Amino acid sequence: MAVTPPAAPSAPAPALAASPARGAVRAAAPAPPPAAAFTAPPPAAVSGPVVSPAGSGDRGGGVVRLAGPVPGALAHRYAALPPPLRVALAALRLEVLLGDPRDAANPYSLPALTSAPAAAGSAACAGSAASAASAGAGEGWDGRAGVLLTAAGLGQVCAADQRVRALRPLLRRDLALGHAAGRWGGPGMPPARRVRGQDGESCPVSSAVPAALLGPAALVAAAGSVLRQAALTVAGRGSGEPALRQWQPVLAAAFADLLACESLTCVALRRPAAPGPGAGPGPGAGLLGAVAGYVVPTVLADVLAQLGLVLAECGHGPASTGGGMLAKLTGDLPLAGVDAAGAAHWQARLARALPALAAEEPRTAHRGPLPAPFRLADPPATAPAGGVAAAGGQEGGHTPDGHESGRLAPDGHTPGGLEPGGYGVGGDSVVLSGLLRAGAARADGADGADTGRAALGALARRLLTEQRALRRPCRTAGADPGAVAARALADRQALLWLAAAVLGVREAADDGRGLFLGGTHWALLALSGIAGRLGVPLPGPAPDPRVPVWAELADRVRRGVDCDVYATRLLW
């Protein structure tokens, strides 16, 4: 199918307006349906200032009217963990430009995107290259993506995790197109080239999102859309068809797995790059990208299989929207590098790194404040020289995203011997292993009345025991990293680090605001799934977390909230 850009490459971004009476954000054209409007409790004040689209300067163009006494009010209404204002505006502009996902006449709608064969998605985009070139948009989807993303203001979002957040309206709709858009380097930049590094992996040149994390981030968002379709069916028809209620625990477990994978991906995206060759932390410097590149496709393969079963049992075959989305997503996995072959590549890289990682195992639990990458509610750490600052410049001590720039010592490290972003000089594996130890230590000090926290600590202690048992064989695994035993060790170690990322993100979100991400239910369910994949027996009786997790998922799909860690409100 042909994917067409907006009316003209130079057309201004449509206006977004927030009505102070109803608090709904609506597009001038096309207008979202009232039932699916971006709804949130409005601030008490009247409409705020007018903000021009990013990069419009004084050339005119569309404007964004914000409700509330300060411009940041929109960002706080956009998600439970709000992004910077510029990121929220870029995401809303992009979602408006993409149009109603349920309108079959819209080339960016779910029916239109899933109507073409999955394997032919990229060819369908390339088939309309002539019309794109005549409009000045370049060739293929990359040119079309540049038109959309420039109009949305994505060029001013340089931090990797915030770029993914702003891209999420596109990532939710189609894995292949979202993955291609992630390679976009900025206004006036050609599509990111692909180069081969010494380790054999591809990486995009000029893209803000690392190659190892681009596919997993897109897969998490696209799988979340399929989960929402299945949950909408089960939640909507469950009262009238009791047989569908059996799928509620299945969807709850899928939701927890999705949050776990996104937690790891977000932490890895927020991890600053090393200042330069030879100046990085230690052997664990590139660990998180490799872990995400392997474990996210592996875990979500099981999730997609479960979602396919639920959709089929609910009568949603390949011709339906949900079934078509799942079929298209499954066919696009190789295009985004998140199929079995892509996961095997990163598994082999982990296997080669096992001896060095085992040598830096910590002997004590992680103490003190959690590193910045785990605190998803905080601005991301500034990349060192050559990173975000070099990409977009800084003004007044702030990055282009509006965050305060990091203050580094002359040796390139933050005070206290920490890497930028709060990591110790030992590398990622030390921090992740220390989080497992910290979670296990809390099992002894947990309040007996808090059964969920006690169960989570006991499960963390069981996983820590498994990690200790892996330390000795990991030391000798590098002799033959391609051996089955070495790959099995890499698989088990990656799952344990996934559990550590869940513990860190959950603890950082437990800040007294009562956020679902800061609760124990989803983390307990996610860690239970990890223990099941490892074959580790669960410790003692524990409260069943599936009921509250399903209640959260059902409430989100009814209120138009995304299935992501940020609890983002949907425009359509």
Give a quick summary of the entry.
By secondary structure, the chain is mainly α. The chain contains 19 helices and six strands. The strands form two sheets. The chain has a four-stranded mixed sheet with strand order 2-1-4-3, covered by helices on one side. It has a two-stranded antiparallel ribbon with strand order 5-6.
How would you portray this structure in words?
It is a single chain. By secondary structure, this protein is mainly α. The protein is built from 19 helices and 6 strands. The two termini are 23 Å apart. Strand 5 and strand 6 (202-204) form a beta hairpin. It is globular and about 60 Å long.
Order of the strands making up the biggest sheet: 2-1-4-3
Helix percentage range: 40-55%
Tell me what portion of residues adopts beta-strand conformation: under 5%
Mean pLDDT: 72
Parts with pLDDT < 50 across at least 5 consecutive residues: 1-70, 118-139, 193-206, 274-285, 383-426
Spatial shape: globular
Number of helical segments with 4 or more residues: 19
Task: Please outline the major beta sheet.
Answer: 4 strands, mixed
Order of helices and strands: EEEEHHHHHHHHEEHHHHHHHHHHH
Which value, in Å, is the CA radius of gyration?
A: 23 Å
N-to-C span: 23 Å
Number of strands: 6
SSE arrangement:
Elements: E1 16-18, E2 25-27, E3 47-51, E4 64-67, H1 73-78, H2 85-98, H3 110-115, H4 121-127, H5 129-134, H6 140-152, H7 160-171, H8 175-182, E5 194-196, E6 202-204, H9 211-237, H10 248-270, H11 287-313, H12 321-336, H13 340-359, H14 388-392, H15 428-445, H16 451-475, H17 484-509, H18 521-534, H19 546-559
Parallel strand pairs: 1-4
Antiparallel strand pairs: 1-2, 3-4, 5-6
Helix pairs in contact: 2-6, 2-7, 7-8, 8-9, 8-12, 9-10, 9-11, 9-12, 9-19, 10-11, 10-17, 10-18, 10-19, 11-12, 11-13, 11-17, 13-16, 13-17, 15-16, 15-17, 16-17, 16-18, 17-18
